[in-house]
Amino acid sequence: DAKTTQPPSMDCAEGRAANLPCNHSTISGNEYVYWYRQIHSQGPQYIIHGLKNNETNEMASLIITEDRKSSTLILPHATLRDTAVYYCIVRGGLGDDKIIFGKGTRLHILP
Amino acid sequence: KAGVTQTPRYLIKTRGQQVTLSCSPISGHRSVSWYQQTPGQGLQFLFEYFSETQRNKGNFPGRFSGRQFSNSRSEMNVSTLELGDSALYLCASSLNVLNYGYTFGSGTRLTVV
User: Fold this and answer.
1) Which of B58, B111, B63, B62 has its CA nearest to residue B83?
2) pLDDT digits (tens, 9 = 90+) for A71-97
3) In this complex, how many residue pairs, one in chain A and one in chain B, have their CB atoms less than 8 Å apart?
4) Which has the closest alpha carbon to A84: A53, A21, A56, A42?
């Protein structure tokens, strides 16, 4: 079973920030939070990951709560090309556990 | 640099046959993982290899197997194909298994008839 819970779908207006939540209330101390997205009929694309500090790269920002039980992926200026299914995954830092994708959040960017 | 390459892109097989899918990781990547994606079950983890050793295995029957070669290229095999094995099979590679993101290939679409 997936270790994360995400809303099945969300809408966001083009040009606005898209904030995608993820609940991982059973996360353990050595587990990282990863985000991927999958645009229709393509392989998933890695976006960002983090342990406990907030992270930012050219694609997105990852905000992890202090208790690490939830996180938010932020796409600062959503475009139509950001329409995709977004997956939040929790995995141990040693990579010795299975990689489990949940159902993800289908993000619709509205023009 | 070249991405993750999966061959073939499309495949049609008959029930009972076997199939071998190939994955060439990004140069320098030593970890390769495989996934099955279907509309009903979503993305499901099959197995992961690092330095020719299987590190993890998902909940699939023994008909699904894989291996990794010394050059990090990987193959997965499905024997005695069933209609339910029709799916998109995705391969992903990473530098290693320690907190790195995975780069996915475009997948092999297998249809079993």
Assistant:
1) B111
2) 999 999 999 999 999 999 998 766 667
3) 65
4) A42
CB A1: neighbour CB atoms within 10 A?
5
Distance from CA of A13 to the nearest CA of B (A): 27
Closest CB to A93 among B35, B44, B98: B98
pLDDT of residue B71: 95
- Locate A69 and state its tokens: 């039980």
* Angle value at C-alpha A52, between A56 and B49, nearest 5 degrees: 85
- Tally of CA atoms within 13 A in the half-sphere of B79 that contains its CB: 5
Three-class SS state of B66: strand
- Rounded to a whole number of angstroms, the distance from the CA of B51 to the nearest CA of chain A is 14
Separation between Cα atoms, residue A107 and residue A103, nearest integer Å:
12
Is B94:B4 a contact under the CB 8 Å cutoff?
A: no
**A101 at the B interface (CB within 8 A)?**
yes
